[in-house]
């Protein structure tokens, strides 16, 4: 695909399709913040609970968009998300942020899910880059210290999935009803890695440097299978593997996030290790995970595909991940795979009637219309970030 055409299409998608959808349809004028649920037919539920992850991802997306293109409506949307998080999700008694609040902003799930805390760090750091807010930086550092104090495992390293509201041990670890109730997961570690990387950009602390370095090494030594180059997904406290599933979306997303983390850290030896591993991860998805239509499947195990749907977020991450592999190797097949991901997105995922993207498509190539357009998990972060990343990367080509 021609670079200039690709960039024009990405810019159009981001600035005229994705971002306006969230500004025009998701702001909650009555109760503040953003509406927690909108179905595929664009029916909003104004009484739906509001998720920490959705609100943090909106903050990250619009802060990042403002840095790319400083438009007033972008920074206003980021400020709205920041204010709502600080006023309604913040636990003023025990620190950290609640997992879920109701439509009026009162906590409905008050546990400290570390995945959610990580996304707030990630978003706050981006908001600092966009606004230079000292309060946001102070809060990001405070949450980092809470994670290191309460979630970090000093015996086996890594981070425990979840804790109670007052940061005590709990047996309720799982992130969602799709996840195993295990003490450690790839997904949480991947997004702590992402969060600490972004925080290190605005806070060059020796302790954070050590945390980030250790997280990269944990990922290389415990989470990535050295034989298959796939992520292992769930673990007990001592890193014993508890799942044999493969998540192609997480594999390709992790391949580029690891490189970003190592580049930001600035350790040449560790970066060399990471680059080698990242290419192996991208190659594994390239070989096993791509369908004939250019999309990547959701999940598999040793017996074959276990989820043949193609959700929106793995396709967004595949575009960036394959292009990252092209940048690392110069191999044209990876650039072509990235371009195929974008073609797939354009053909199957962009909702040209209502805006934004469909949740995904089924094996029949039809949109999954029973899945929401906006929810605790359906957000502008994967697709918005993919457009931003590709615009930046293609500019350097």
Description:
The chain has 397 residues and is mostly helical. Helix 6 (186-202) packs parallel to helix 8 and helix 10 (312-329) runs parallel beside helix 12. A hairpin with a 2-residue loop joins strand 9 (299-301) and strand 10. Helix content is 55%, strand content 7%. The protein is built from 12 helices and 12 strands. The protein has a 3-stranded antiparallel sheet. A 3-stranded antiparallel sheet has the order 8-9-10. It has helices at 3-25, 52-68, 72-89, 114-131, 134-151, 186-202, 206-223, 248-265, 268-288, 312-329, 332-349, 381-395, and strands at residues 50-51, 100-101, 107-109, 112-113, 162-163, 184-185, 234-235, 246-247, 299-301, 304-307, 310-311, 360-361. The two termini are 13 Å apart.
Shape descriptor reads globular
Order of helices and strands: HEHHEEEHHEEHHEEHHEEEHHEH
- Multimerization state: single chain
Strand content: 5-15%
End-to-end distance, in Å? 13 Å
Work out the helicity level.
55-70%
* Low-confidence region ranges: none
The side-by-side strand order for the widest beta sheet comes to 1-2-3
Label the structural class: mainly alpha
Rg computed from alpha carbons, rounded to a whole number of angstroms = 20 Å
Q: Write down how many β-strands occur, each being a DSSP E stretch of 2 or more residues.
A: 12
The helix tally amounts to 12
Average pLDDT metric: 96
